[in-house]
Amino acid sequence: MKYPLLFFLASPESPSSSVSTETVVTILHIHHIRKTLEVWQSAALEYEKANPSVRIQFDYLENEEFKAKLPTLLQSNDRPSIFHSWGGGVMLEQIQAGFCQDITNAIAGDFKDSFYPAAVQIFMSEGKSYGLPSDVGPTVFWYNKELCDRAGVDPSGIKSWEDLLDAVKKCKAAGVTPIAVGGGEKWPLHFYPTLLMMRILGKDGMASACKGDDNGFAGPGVVKAWKMYKELCDLDPFQEGFQSQKYSETAGFFHDGKAAFHFMGIWDLNVGRMGAADKQGLPDAKLGWFFFPEVQSGKGKANDILASVNGWLVSKDAPKVAIDFMKVLLGKDVQAKLAAEGLCIPMVKGTADAIQNPFLKALATEMNNSGWIAITMDQLLGRETGRVFNDEAVAIAVGAESPEQAAQAIEDSWSENRI
To answer: Are 334 and 43 in contact (CB under 8 A)?
Structure first.
């Protein structure tokens, strides 16, 4: 993949000619929803019209391909001007390696203040801003009302971990696939032990584990989470072939009405419908959602939310106009359009009113009421330990390791790679 910087030189024979240049701002992203890209492209065209010497170029990489190729791209001469980020340890590694640009002064004032402060913090390090948030994707259990009815399951009654296990058993007894999961990409499975850790340890306990207190990620609370995750996996709750299915396939599988539940972020509404056989998927009337259940005697709360906070980082060599366009892309007008289309929950203040989709509207309210929004572990812990965490989530799901082994493997990696 090339990100060309094109120079157009006037003929040297012409005394009245002058050198003109075109600055290309390249934006590396992971989004493939057509409506999102249309809103972005419209903003880019307007910007190019007002700035004829600038060209905005959007480059797409699929989620897993993005994770695999970005480290190499950032070390090359083909690094993008702006690139997608989930923050966390992966971002800190990129900052420490010198790949990111300090944009603190460039965004200071009203523009920075237009975002929710907690989200802005995610893209900061040592008091400096290297990027900004765009939107947040809370993870929830989506459910198919018809399949739940067939299995005799009342999703509104799933409040505890035991309630969820009972629902899985009822689904299996009724011949309904309980849960769809894209195990082939690993990260969808990692949500389960992560949420169990959050529910058991709570915010302070998770922070202590990160610090290495009480054996860190090999401590008793973490091991308990992995044991409870294994308890779920031992019920054989997932669809046949889940180990090799990619997320997008699984989203379509759920929206084809083939599983009762799918634990996933809000983006699943669009990805699932796009991946369904009829390209329509389940209508709102057949869908519902609930938060990951609580654990008895756990310190976490039902509205402690695990979310993907999406944002943009600016690379070290990016031209100044890259930040200028980022202000347009993340401006209230563009973000409100995305919200109105039901494409995301933006992190820009005042955009929630534009959300029309009832699911997103309700979740936006819940986000405002939540006392803790955590980012995913495979981003929080950095590339190396994040990879180990995801690998262990798969190992437990297929019965290849014990909960104690999984917890210890993560702690061993974190001890060596703590950020």
So the answer is: yes
Residues 6+ apart with CB under 8 A from 297: none
Output Rg (C-alpha) for the chain, integer angstroms.
Answer: 22
SS (H, E, C) the chain: CCCCCCEECCCCCCCCCCCEECEEEEEEECCCCHHHHHHHHHHHHHHHHHCCCEEEEEEECCHHHHHHHHHHHHCCCCCCCEEEECCHHHHHHHHHCCCECCCHHHHCCHHHHCECHHHHHHCEECCEECEEEEEEEEEEEEEEHHHHHHHCCCHHHCCEHHHHHHHHHHHHHCCCCCEECCHHHCHHHHHHHHHHHHHHHHHHHHHHHHHCHHHHHHCHHHHHHHHHHHHHHCCCCECCCCCCCCHHHHHHHHHCCCCCEEEEECCHHHHHHHHCCCCCCCCHHHEEEECCCECCCCCCCCCCEEEEEEEEEEECCCCHHHHHHHHHHCCHHHHHHHHHCCCCEECECCCHHHCCCHHHHHHHHHHHHCCCEEECHHHHCHHHHHHHHHHHHHHHHCCCCCHHHHHHHHHHHHHHHCC
Mean pLDDT of 252-279: 97
Q: Phi and psi (nearest 5°) for 245? A: -75, 135
Q: What is the pTM of this model?
A: 0.90
Band (20; pLDDT cuts 50, 70, 90) = very low
Torsions phi, psi for 129 (to 5 deg) = -95, 135
Q: Rounded to the nearest 5°, which phi and psi values hold at 110?
A: -60, -35
Q: What is the pLDDT of residue 1?
A: 32
Both ends of the chain: CA-CA distance in Å?
Answer: 30
Among residues 395, 398, 399, 397, the alpha carbon closest in space to that of 409 is found at: 395
- Can you list the domains of the chain with their CATH numbers? 7-136+308-374 (3.40.190.10), 138-305+375-417 (3.40.190.10)
What's residue 93's pLDDT?
A: 96
Tokens representing 40?
């972005």
Mode of pairing for the β-strands spanning 82-85 and 128-129: unpaired
- Residue 135 pairs with which residues in a beta bridge? 310, 346
Cross-strand pairs, 8: 20
